C-alpha cells in the first residue's frame, strides 16, 4: 500500500487544485490582519475634545454658538493658567448661570488673576467631541484617566487569541480543520457585528475577546490546511506567501479607514468579508492528512482522486487504501511536545521565539508612525516595509537554512529597537527609520517562526505545536 506522500506526488504536489485552495485561504490573512492591527484606526485619538461643562450646552444653544465657539468661550485658553491643559482632562470649577452670562464674553465676570486661582476639577460630566463617533475613544470616553482602557481592548483581543489557540487548536485536531475554520469564520463575523453596535464598553470588550478567539481559529486552521495539502518541498513557499497576504491586509487597512469616517463603519468593513468565507464549504476540502490520522482513509482517498482530477493527473486504480505510520494515527496530547529531550528543546525555543516575535512586532505596529504626521500614509509605508521580509526569507532559507536568517533577523530587530530608544525626539525621521528596520527584522523572525513551527512537528502534533 502506498504512503500518503507517494499518492500526493502522483496526484500533484502543488497543482491547479492546491493553488486554487491556497489562494482562497490566503484571503484569511487579510481579514486576520484587519483584526490584529485594527485598533490603530478604531482607537485613533480624536484631535479635538474638551471637558463637557454643565450648562454650557444650554448656553451654546441660547447663544447660537458653533462647537468651536463653545470651546473658545467656556474653556479658558491654556495661557491663562499654566496648570490647565486645553480643557481636555480638567476644567475650571465654575458654576455657569446661563441666564446672566454674556453670549459674546461669558468669562467677563472673571479676571485673569481670579481665573489663575480658580480651583480645577476633573471632567465629571464627560467630554465634548468634534467628531463624536469617529473612534471608540470618543464613543466610550477612553480619555484622560480612562486612556489605559484603549490598550486594554488590545490586551483582551490577545487574550482571545490565546484562548482560541488552545480551544480551537484542540477542536481542529479532534473535529477537522475545515469544520473549525468555517465555524470560526461565522463566529468572528457575528462577534464583529456585535462589537460594531455594542451599547456599552463592557459588551464591546466581551465580544472583542470572542473575536480574538474565533479570529485565531480562522488564521491557524487556514495556515495548517495550506501546509498540509501540498508536498513537503512546497510547504515553505506556501507558509511564507500566505503571510504576505497578512502584510497586504496591513497595507489595505489605512485605505479603508481613510474612506470611512466612523469607527462602526470601519468595524463593519473589516468584519463582513468573514461571512464570504462560509462559501468555502463547497470549495475547500478537509485536509486528507488529518483524515488519515483519524483513520478515515476512504474519505482521504476520495479527496486525493478529486485533487488528481483537477490537476489533470490520474491515480492508479490499485490505490484502494493509503498507509500511515503508527505515529500518525496515535492520539497525541500537549505533553508529547515536551516528552523527549529533542522535542522539548525545539518546543522551548519556539515558545520563546513566539513570545518575543509577537511582543516586538505588535509593539512596533501599534506605535510606529503614530507619533505624528499622516497616520494613513505612515501606516501604509510601515506595512510595505514587511514585503521585502518574505522575499529575503525565500531567497535565503534554501541556501543557508532557517537558523542563521532567524538569528540575524532577531539581532537586527533587537539592536534597532535598542537604538530607537536612545535617539532624540527632535529627529523623528531617524527614529522612524531605525524603528522601521526593526520592523523588517522582527517580521522576518515572525514568519520564520511560523514556518519552522509547521516543519518541526508531525501532522498529529502540528496544530498543538502551533497552538502552544
UniProtKB/TrEMBL annotation:
It catalyses: (R)-adrenaline(out) = (R)-adrenaline(in); histamine(out) = histamine(in); tyramine(in) = tyramine(out); (R)-noradrenaline(out) = (R)-noradrenaline(in). It is a multi-pass membrane protein. It is found in: Apical cell membrane; Basolateral cell membrane; Mitochondrion membrane; Nucleus outer membrane. One of its GO terms (cellular component) is basolateral plasma membrane. GO terms for molecular function: monoamine transmembrane transporter activity; neurotransmitter transmembrane transporter activity; quaternary ammonium group transmembrane transporter activity. PROSITE patterns: MFS (PS50850), SUGAR_TRANSPORT_1 (PS00216). It holds the Pfam family Sugar_tr. Keywords: Cell membrane, Glycoprotein, Ion transport, Membrane, Mitochondrion, Nucleus, Transmembrane, Transmembrane helix, Transport. GO terms for biological process: dopamine transport; histamine transport; monoatomic ion transport; norepinephrine transport; serotonin transport. Residues 111-468 form the Major facilitator superfamily (MFS) profile domain. InterPro entries: MFS_dom, MFS_sugar_transport-like, MFS_trans_sf, Sugar_transporter_CS. The chain crosses the membrane at residues 21-42, 180-199, 205-226, 238-260, 266-284, 349-370, 376-397, 404-423, 429-452. Belongs to the major facilitator (TC 2.A.1) superfamily. Organic cation transporter (TC 2.A.1.19) family. This is Solute carrier family 22 member 3.
